[in-house]
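Fill in residues.
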């Protein structure tokens, strides 16, 4: 079966070097599952890999996309507790810019009912980064005040969500009123447009 895949054939600062290829999709190995990708997050590491500036350097050509979600279509003989039709989220270094992918069964997690593919795809990098920063490193406590600078990005929005869930008063900054409206809708208690200066 041929699978459309957006791949990087040469490292460049211009992400328009990506091109759509048709790649032969093999059946999953015994320890793998095959997933039809429904949504893929785009994160800073994806851009850095295309530019050749990330610590992990995939072999060319490669499909960026380290976190994605979809539906299991085939299951390898040794994959346990996973069935065709399962909705899953995957954390992988690359491969998400494709229609289908074979991944190690250990790298997939079920998507809870009510969570969209798009939300599931954005979970791993953004929410885990924010969680480690707030809960593990920052040890944020209920009643404390949290400043989220650049709150309109993926990690920033996750920090606003988690900060509120952890009982903090959240002050969020962003560079436009449009972005601040989205951040405030997510629950920020106070907002600051940093592009306006101190006036």
């Amino acid at each position: 079966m041929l699978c459309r895949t957006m791949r990087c054939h040469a490292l460049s600062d211009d992400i328009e070097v990506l091109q759509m290829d048709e790649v032969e999709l093999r059946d999953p190995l015994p320890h793998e599952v095959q997933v039809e990708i429904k949504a893929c997050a785009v994160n800073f590491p994806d851009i850095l890999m295309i530019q050749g500036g990330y610590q992990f350097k995939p072999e060319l050509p490669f499909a960026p996309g380290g976190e994605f979600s979809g539906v299991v279509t085939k299951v390898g003989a040794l994959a346990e507790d996973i069935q065709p039709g399962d909705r899953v989220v995957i954390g992988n270094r690359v491969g998400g810019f494709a229609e289908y992918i074979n991944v190690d069964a250990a790298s997939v997690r079920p998507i809870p009912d009510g969570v969209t593919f798009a939300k599931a795809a954005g979970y791993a990098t953004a929410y885990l980064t924010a969680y480690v920063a707030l809960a593990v490193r920052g040890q944020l406590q209920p009643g404390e005040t949290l400043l989220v600078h650049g709150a309109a990005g993926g990690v920033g929005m996750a920090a606003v969500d988690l900060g509120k869930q952890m009982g903090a008063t959240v002050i969020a900054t962003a560079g436009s009123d449009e972005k601040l409206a989205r951040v405030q809708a997510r629950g920020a208690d106070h907002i600051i447009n940093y592009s306006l200066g101190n006036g």
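Strands lie at 2-8, 18-24, 32-40, 67-75, 87-91, 100-104, 108-110, 145-148, 169-174, 190-193.
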